Amino acid sequence: MIRINENYTKLKASYLFSDIAKRVSAFVAANPSKPVIRLGIGDVTEPLPAVCVEALHAATDEMAKRETFKGYGPEQGYAFLREAIAAHDYAARKCPIEADEIFVSDGSKCDCGNIQEIFGTDIRLAIPDPVYPVYLDTNVMAGRTGGNVDGRYTGITYLDSTPANGYVPAIPATAADLIYLCFPNNPTGAVATKAQLAAWVAYAKKNQAIILFDSAYEAYIRDPAIPHSIYEIDGARDVAIEFRSFSKTAGFTGTRCAYTVVPKSLKAFDAAGKEHSVHALWNRRHTTKFNGVAYPIQKAAAAIFTPEGQKQTRALTDFYLGNAKLIREAMGKLGLPCVGGDNAPYIWINTGRDSWEFFDLLLDKAQVVCTPGAGFGKCGEGHVRISAFNSRANVEAALTRIAAALK
Ligand code: MLT
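A: This is the predicted complex of the input protein with D-malate.
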């Protein structure tokens, strides 16, 4: 008889955003005359930058001619894109990252979910709470945790992000081997200073650990003192992997393109204590299971790095940050404390109420979808996340409706 991977039985029945989508569909079916505004899942609404659309068209034309047609590309990504990333996202910020340390992929969700495969199943994990659910769920699937007891999986060091620590978790007292960090943070929108990241790099060095640094939202940083990459910290290339995405930078959530940086100096060990190159392991995994991102999509991504592309993507992130500012101001007027939204597209609101109840209230009374904080972990209870990804008209209408609902 075929057996299942029983680790899956430890998981909640559905992924957070599928669960919310189901609830919203049920509400829409029952209330067809009440239009819903979605500020839940962080999905972009504005069209692709014009430079990306032009590059897509041109690359599609190349695919239509025998002389320029392309079949399989390099699994790690075309050199034109990897070199543009290395120059603009790393060399320009004085980060010592080479083009061949960059792996282009179809999304950071996949990469930060898949990366754990190359590490042992008995490693010690440190995972933030609240957290982007992918980090946690993929480790549950792989059998690195016990069951869920009182809202938390056993066998994990949770890094609490609370109002008391400004939603930036402290370094744990105990050692961990694999540490997940995300800044600007999803879901809280909090950012980490250089000193805070340096402390994590020192902790990882001391424990021969690896940091998985998700910086999918770095394009939203406006404070010049905040690092965009973990590699801005001295020594980080010996202890960190970084995930970046074009989804929120340039509206690629539907187009799919991202990249992961695995420095060649990064080492991990086998049971006998022998050193192995993490870059070589990830290259082995990536080339075995992935055949690369479509050529036209990579051309569209490379267009982001042209001067015009930089201007257009900046305008796009500025636009969503404008929405975020309106959301923050509206929450302030309602007396609801919040963080995020200044260097991130998410606003994390301390409602002081049960987060699913607050979600239901906004849906029923305002027809606005948010994300209940409890869905991101125990420390998310009492909070909701509002995403700035929508049109200005929808954000303004949502804020008017929320104000009326909370009167
Ligand atoms: C979110 O809403 O947290 C994001 O859309 C997640 C993602 O990018 O997968």
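Residues 41-43, 109, 132, 186, 247 surround D-malate (CB under 6 Å). The first helix runs from residue 16 to 30.
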